[in-house]
Amino acid sequence: MNSGIYQKLKKEGDYVPRFLIKLWQIRIKEKFGLEVDSDIAAVIVKIVHERSTWKLSRAEKYITALLKLKGESKEAAEKEAKELVKTVLE
To answer: 0.70 exceeded by the pTM?
Structure first.
């Protein structure tokens, strides 16, 4: 499946403090009304603190892979990931 992309994300070595992940989960829930799990929040923290186009597209792929692992269809996962990244970074 897409576990290769997910494993690559885990191996990148970008340490994200747990308090930042929790903080962003709360912020996203309050500001946008979206509940995200800690894996997706960690990806969002990484892209917020390092803005570049390749990082954005890669984040969309990672979030898509995480959503597909949770049982979403490919099309729905891609759409949701794209909207989530766009919403959070605006």
So the answer is: no
Report the alpha-carbon distance of residue 71 to residue 56 in Å, rounded.
23
Q: What sign has the CA pseudo-torsion 14, 17, 18, 19?
A: negative
Q: Which tokens sit at 30?
A: 């309050």
Q: Is residue 45 within 8 Å of residue 21, measured between CB atoms?
A: yes
Tracing tokens 């929040």 back to the chain, one arrives at 41
Name the token pair of 55: 């990082």
Token code pair at residue 48: 């917020």
Q: What is the DSSP letter of 34?
A: -
pLDDT at 19: 87
Q: Which residue has the higher pLDDT, 49 or 85?
A: 85
